[in-house]
Design goal:
Elements: H1 2-28, H2 49-64, H3 77-100, H4 104-120, E1 128-129, E2 134-135, H5 139-159, H6 166-188, H7 197-216, H8 225-244, H9 255-258, H10 262-275, H11 278-293, H12 306-313, H13 317-344, H14 351-369, H15 378-383
Antiparallel strand pairs: 1-2
Helix pairs in contact: 1-2, 1-7, 2-3, 2-7, 2-8, 3-4, 3-8, 4-5, 5-8, 5-11, 6-7, 6-8, 6-13, 7-8, 10-13, 13-14
Length: 396
């Protein structure tokens, strides 16, 4: 575990230092776009934080290549090189978009290309579905499912990039839960070395988010932009695929030892990677349906995302972000507690996770639908000049 802690601290330190440097250089050379009609922030703010996060990730992988604890993953270096190459490509395209607003078709094409590099050259694919060990017999079906999954998660994470600290905090919580899950899965298989690529990627992303948040917290001085959001989504998808796409519940041994709920034991490996990004996926799905029903491109920007609706309800931007944090922690921890309950055979088995979820949902619903400040009435908004809001991310 101490090797993972070192990875988190190293990535956080490198990301923080580089984020500060990127922020200062962006201000000095005015490397930031002007305010667009669809933007909700009031002051031009640099959006190149994704560069610092990417370099922090690269630094962590570089150091791991020299550490014997992580030698097992470097025994197949093509997987890592494909992963880093695809990440570098998506960060490069994201930087161009952050500076010059690329057409959505170019960005989507780059996303499919990056996902294809990972699936084809890195051989990181979904080969099995953890539903009774179902195997995907067609190599092309495996390739297509992998590419589609990566692209969907990338866009889902990118779509919620709308408030200061929102994406970084949500991804921090999601990866922390997924790290605990992936670490425990390998522990429960009886492996002598708990290292696995899924846990390592999650640890790296935890560090990147921790290092970036100080400059991204409201009022933000630096945005991660498309480069950072797409990178987080890509790596989170790869982390989930590296363990879920090759997971067979039978490897946990006798089901009586693994847990008393065979059905839950089969579903959790595929359920938890989904629920940790449940809010981004929900927002992404609603946005696609909303835009296509109006005859628009699913990637045309609007101001109807979940976080924008919470602002319209009367929440401040910080309150909205904290509520998103609470929902993310609720859904992900609930499933993690179910997994722990089945493996350790707690009293009540997975009911502890269910109880936590029920109580948490009730609490989250209260804070979500009881805003801390009254939303302005139309008449008041027409008379009074709007007060400046803290800077927020650009609308997706």
């Amino acid at each position: 575990m101490k090797q993972y802690v070192f990875t988190i601290l190293l990535t956080a330190a490198v990301t923080f230092v580089l984020s500060w440097a990127v922020w200062r250089l962006s201000l000095k050379y005015k490397l930031y776009p002007g305010i667009r009609e669809r933007d909700v922030h009031k002051t031009p703010t640099p959006r190149l934080g994704g560069i610092a996060m990417f370099l922090g990730v690269v630094a962590a992988f570089a150091v791991s290549s020299q550490h014997p604890f992580f030698a097992i993953v470097w025994s197949q270096p093509h997987e890592i090189y494909a992963l880093l190459g695809a990440t570098g490509l998506i960060v490069l395209v994201g930087v161009f978009d952050d500076l010059w607003d690329l057409d959505w078709t170019i960005k989507l094409g780059a996303q499919f290309l990056a996902a294809g590099v990972i699936a084809w050259f890195g051989k990181l694919q979904i080969y099995t579905l953890p539903l009774g060990g179902m195997t995907i017999f067609s190599s092309w079906a495996s390739f297509a499912l992998t590419v589609l999954s990566i692209v969907v998660v990338m866009n889902a994470v990118n779509f919620i990039d709308g408030l200061d600290g929102l994406v970084a905090g949500v991804c921090l919580i999601a990866n922390a839960v997924f790290f605990a899950y992936s670490y425990m899965v390998f522990r429960d298989t009886g492996a002598s070395n708990y290292f696995n690529l899924a846990s390592f990627i999650a640890a790296v992303l935890i560090g990147a988010c921790i290092g970036f948040l100080p400059l991204n917290w409201s009022p933000a001085r630096l945005f991660m932009g498309d480069a950072g959001a797409l990178m987080l989504g890509l790596l989170m998808a790869c982390s989930a695929i590296s363990i879920t796409g090759n997971f067979d519940p039978a490897m946990m041994g006798d089901n009586d030892e693994f847990g008393r709920s065979q059905l839950l034991g089969a579903f959790i490996p595929i359920l938890l990677p989904v629920v940790v990004v449940l809010l981004p996926l929900l927002d992404f799905g609603l946005a696609v349906v909303r835009r296509m029903s109006r005859g628009k491109s699913p990637f045309s920007p609007d101001r109807k995302h979940l976080h924008h609706r919470m602002l319209d309800m009367g929440h401040s931007d910080r309150d909205a972000v904290l509520i998103f944090y609470a929902w993310t922690a609720l859904v992900s921890l609930s499933v993690l507690l179910m997994y722990i309950g089945t493996t350790l055979e707690w009293p009540g088995d997975y009911l502890i996770g269910v109880a936590y979820g029920v109580v948490g949902v009730a609490a989250c619903l209260v804070v979500t639908f009881l805003p801390s400040r009254r939303p302005p009435q139309p008449a008041e908004a027409a008379v009074a000049a709007p007060s400046p809001e803290p800077s927020t991310e650009n609308v997706r």
